[in-house]
Specification:
- The complex is a heterodimer.
- By secondary structure, chain A is of the alpha/beta class.
- Chain A has nine helices and twelve strands.
- Chain A has one domain: 3-Layer(aba) Sandwich (Rossmann fold), CATH 3.40.50.
- Chain A is 39% helix and 29% strand.
- In chain A, strand 1 and strand 2 form a beta hairpin.
- The two termini of chain A are 28 Å apart.
- Chain B has a domain of 305 residues.
- Helix content of chain B is 24%, strand content 33%.
- Chain B has 13 helices and 23 strands.
- Chain B starts with a helix and ends in a 6-residue tail after the last helix.
- The chains are: A alpha/beta, B alpha/beta.
- At the A-B interface, helix 2, strand 7 and helix 3 of A face helix 10 and helix 11 of B.
- The complex binds adenosine-5'-diphosphate and magnesium ion.
- The site of magnesium ion (MG) has 5 residues of chain A, from helix 1.
- The site of adenosine-5'-diphosphate has 12 residues of chain A, from strand 2 and helix 1.
- Chain A: InterPro entries: AAA+_ATPase, ABC_transporter-like_ATP-bd, ABC_transporter-like_CS, FeS-cluster_ATPase_SufC, P-loop_NTPase.
- Chain A: Belongs to the ABC transporter superfamily. Ycf16 family.
- Chain A: It comes from Falsiroseomonas stagni DSM 19981.
- Chain A: Keywords: ATP-binding, Nucleotide-binding.
């Protein structure tokens, strides 16, 4: 499904990822934990194809294809979804219009018919009910004036609607109250299945109580220094990263 | 920022290929001799069979024009215009008014079809008598159209239907014949002959344009519109539009325009006068799509236009909405004279300049009556080496107690070889008046593009979406069907600006 081998990447000439290797099988959920500045967001941007994040060594294969050779939008319609740590505001662009445009881009790529405004509203409203989002959030401009929690909910709405095969969640739980945290977990769990894999970046064990991962990795200074099962997250919660970093 | 660099490079690679209206119609035309002198003014007046007073009016304007200097204060630069090297009258040769579709010059028909005027209207537009009262297809609200082809109006639709409500909608040359008293009463009362250089030129040589009169208390049942087409080479278009909304009446009027793609620059110097009496409302929308010239700045229309509304009556209201995407140079300042107490003026503008286009546009709001209110929302988008200037004046007279103005000017830059400038003049001589001005300049951020692309949008669609979002406040002022057109046009104007 996703195979990352010896990945090195620089940002502004600065080496951030220094030989990262990771394999995710179909249906698996992997959690990545690690200190601030260890390169977690960088990894998610490299996988999503953001400009300025330059791969200097290594390879990434996604569904047998060279992921690094694809444009960001090609990766997106091939099922790679990034839930942003800081979702971006698009003034004047209606949330519904944006999401329908995105949905239709993905549907076109899958050879499915596009949805019209009415069909879209039906689908979106059903999802929003589950996410406990008020209807008027569809009319508001994308993320403009949204609270931190609303922005994250909006990311989860997009993820649910676009139903990716590889979801990258970059600290989606940060700054959320316990109800919102459960909402994030519920959304991921609702997509969980043999054709859905996820890379969940988080600082906190508590999210992983709700999304039980198959594997947990510790990222430090651009490399994975430890891997284990869900119990590793609990250990880190108790001891902090320092012990693992020192042992590595 | 690599995304922006890429955007910039591709903006520069845009060629005139993106302009879809650049074809030329091969049709038999009649011209006045090249050049400009008193004889040409007389020729035009005679062609239109005008009464003596109008010829005198033109000649007076011409005499004044000769003494005037071309203005140089706008932030636009262009080679000196040779006014003697152009035709001032060009019209398709038409012996008799065609009675059926078969008799209409097929080239004229093809032209409208290519410009995307719907088939039903196409029949009407081409001047087929009797077709003017056919209900529009699918029960859609019809739009009455006056089609101006170079120097003449070739047809006006729905005239009879509108006449049932006492509404006059026709070519101004026809109004001079049929309603001379109205034309004489109002012509030049909003924009006097010597108002400015281009208005004086227009007053001397104007050829056609639309005339609208809405009687007291009448709400015009359909959108009125004029479609201007420049076709002939080396020819200037000088149209004159006059709209009068009598007490308590309401009208929404739209104008659109296109021109062939040529290496030469062609002059378009129009004058639009609006008069709103007590409690009348005029909504005037423009989607300006003249040929903008090619990527190197060769060719394109010089669009020097004077548009002004006189809110003569108490509680009258005029709203200007413009989407300016075309022309090599745009020089226009649709204005409102808020004379009547409690009158309202609005100006909503989107101006986009790409490649070497230059736009110097804005508005003037003259607050004279008590409690007059004005709103100005200007959105300037610059790409390529485009230069975009907002120039506005808010003038409040000592008597305009309680006057209010709100101005919002936003500029969006794509790339770093373009420019955006804001020149707001405020002259407030009234203690109780309140004037607010806000201005912002922004760029399409790399994170916005990436966010859109991560959701599956192409870079071009992402830019289109962001630009349309930036213009939303203005686009929502346009009548529904025009808004959709305008959105597409904005995207086309930036075509190739990315990816
Ligand atoms: N645009 C940038 N320019 C220079 N350094 C950057 C940039 N973005 C991130 N970094 C640096 O890269 C390192 C990793 O950042 P990031 O991937 O955001 O870490 P994390 O998400 O694990 O907190 C940090 O040292 C950060 O300062
Ligand atoms: Mg981060």
């Amino acid at each position: 499904m996703l195979k990352i081998e010896n990945l090195h990447a620089t940002v502004d000439g600065k080496q951030i990822l220094k030989g990262l290797t990771l394999e995710i099988a179909p249906g698996e959920i992997h959690a990545i934990m690690g200190p601030n500045g260890s390169g977690k967001s960088t990894l998610s941007y490299v996988l999503a194809g953001r400009e300025g994040y330059e791969v200097t060594e290594g390879s990434v294969t996604y569904k047998g294809q060279d992921l690094l050779a694809m444009e960001p939008e090609e990766r997106a319609v091939a099922g790679v979804f990034l839930a942003f740590q800081a979702p971006v505001e698009l003034p004047g662009v209606g949330n519904a219009n944006f999401l329908r445009t995105a949905l239709n881009a993905v549907r076109r790529a899958k050879g499915e018919s596009e949805v019209d405004a009415i069909q879209f509203l039906k689908l979106a409203r059903a999802r929003m009910k589950v996410l406990n989002m008020p209807d008027d959030m569809l009319k508001r401009p994308v993320n403009v004036g949204f609270s931190g929690g609303e922005k994250k909910r909006n990311e989860m709405l997009q993820m649910a609607m676009l139903s990716p095969t590889l979801a990258l969640l970059d600290e989606t739980d940060s700054g959320l109250d316990i109800d919102a945290l459960k909402m994030v977990a519920d959304t991921v769990n609702s997509l969980r299945g043999p054709t859905f894999s996820a890379l969940v970046i988080t600082h906190y064990q508590r999210l992983l109580n709700h999304i039980v991962p198959d594997h947990v990795h510790v990222l430090s200074a651009g490399r994975i220094i430890r891997s284990g099962g869900p119990e590793l997250a609990q250990e880190l919660e108790a001891t902090g990263y320092a012990a693992s970093v020192a042992a590595a | 920022m690599p995304a922006v660099t890429e955007t910039l490079e591709t903006v520069q690679s845009v060629t005139e290929g993106g302009y879809k209206w650049g074809f030329e119609t091969d049709i038999e035309m009649e011209f006045a001799p090249k050049g400009l002198n008193e004889d040409i003014v007389r020729f035009i007046s005679a062609k239109k069979n005008e009464p003596a007073w109008l010829l005198e009016w033109r000649l007076k304007a011409f005499a004044m024009w000769k003494k005037m200097e071309e203005p140089s204060w706008a932030a636009v630069s262009y080679p000196k215009i040779d006014y003697q090297d152009a035709y001032y009258y060009a019209a398709p040769t038409q012996k008799v008014k065609p009675k059926s579709l078969d008799e209409v010059d097929p080239e004229l028909l093809k032209t409208y079809a290519k410009l995307g005027i719907p088939l039903k209207e196409q029949a009407i537009l081409a001047g087929v008598e009797g077709a003017g009262d056919t209900p529009a297809d699918g029960g859609r609200m019809p739009i009455a159209v006056d089609a101006v082809f170079d120097s003449v109006s070739v047809a006006t639709s729905y005239k009879e239907r509108l006449a049932k409500d006492g509404i006059i909608f026709c070519a101004i040359s026809e109004a001079v014949q049929e309603h001379p008293e109205l034309v004489r009463q109002y012509l030049g009362t909003v924009v006097p002959q010597a108002d400015n250089y281009f208005a004086a030129l227009n007053s001397a040589v104007f050829t056609d344009g639309s005339f609208v009169y809405i009687p007291k208390g009448v709400r015009c049942p359909m959108e009125l519109s004029t479609y201007f087409r420049i076709n002939a080479k080396s020819t200037g278009q000088f149209e004159r539009t006059l709209i009068i909304a009598d007490e308590g009446s309401t009208v929404s009027y739209l104008e659109g325009c296109t021109a062939p793609q040529r290496d030469e620059n062609q002059l378009h110097a129009a004058v639009v006068e609006l008069v709103a009496l007590d409690d009348a409302t005029i909504k005037y929308s423009t989607v300006q799509n003249w040929y903008p010239g090619d990527a190197e700045g060769r060719g394109g229309i010089y669009n020097f236009v004077t548009k002004r509304a006189d809110c003569r009556g108490a509680r009258s209201k005029v709203s200007w909405t413009q989407v300016e995407t075309g022309s090599a140079i745009t020089w226009k300042y649709p204005s409102c004279i808020l004379r009547g107490d409690d009158s309202v003026g609005e100006f909503y503008s989107v101006a986009i300049t790409n490649n070497r286009q230059q736009a110097d546009t804005g508005t003037k709001m003259f607050h004279i009556g008590k409690n007059t209110r004005s709103t100005i929302v200007s959105k300037g988008i610059s790409a390529g080496r485009g230069q975009n200037t907002y120039r506005g004046l808010v003038k409040i007279s000592p008597k305009a107690a309680g006057a209010r103005n709100f101005t919002q000017c936003d500029s969006l830059l794509i790339g770093d070889e373009c420019g955006a400038h804001t020149v707001p003049y405020i002259e407030n001589r009234c203690m109780s008046a309140k004037v607010e001005h806000e201005a912002t300049t922004s760029r399409i951020a790399e994170d916005q593009l990436f966010y859109c692309r991560q959701r599956g949008l192409s870079e071009e669609d992402a830019v289109g979406l962001i630009v349309n979002g930036f213009c939303r406040e203005v686009l929502k002022e346009l009548p529904m069907e025009f808004a959709v057109e305008a959105q597409k046009l904005l995207q086309i104007s930036l075509e190739g600006s990315v990816g």
